Here is the input.
Amino acid sequence: GESVGLHLPTLSVQEGDNSIINCAYSNSASDYFIWYKQESGKGPQFIIDIRSNMDKRQGQRVTVLLNKTVKHLSLQIAATQPGDSAVYFCAENSGSARQLTFGSGTQLTVLP
Amino acid sequence: DAGITQSPRYKITETGRQVTLMCHQTWSHSYMFWYRQDLGHGLRLIYYSAAADITDKGEVPDGYVVSRSKTENFPLTLESATRSQTSVYFCASSDMRLNTEAFFGQGTRLTVV
Here is the structure.
């Protein structure tokens, strides 16, 4: 069936380094993608989104890249900080029902 | 305060009991959702609602009931709780625009013993 998955369940980076979190999706009809950050004990928090007519979008310290050819999505975090430690989820929306399909998440740990 | 709030934050219940999780949003968003989050499964959609009195099943609806008599409230009821329903439940809402993010509550941790 259709799915959204993440390549790696955990990622450790040194403070100040850049982080890259990857996500693969299989539904070619997906036209909207979101990255969420979830800190321990909290609900998912929106980070950045991208529509399928774009291949790159930048926010504050974050960049999302979309490669529709290989159905791959990535989140880049520049100058990773301790506060960036969290689980990151990618999610896709492929229809008008506003439903999101989530990946299983990547735990990002920032090392001092 | 504006936002989306869930109650209770923590709940322990016994197998077979009925339990209702509450969700309230102050944005007047049309869409509301219930997800469950289990280790290794990410977030899975239980039910969603496009507007008051309109609800639809998601990926894992069995054992759950929802209602939406008012736009701002979307309660989730477990009619006869089972241990497999032990999970963290998240409510979310989004507005009418196509392709827009959902805003999540802080979650309810439910334990069924």
In short: The interface with chain A takes residues 31, 33, 35, 40-45, 48, 50, 56, 58, 90, 92, 94, 98-107 of chain B (CB under 8 Å). Chain B is about 0% helix and 50% strand. The two ends of chain B are 34 Å apart (CA to CA).
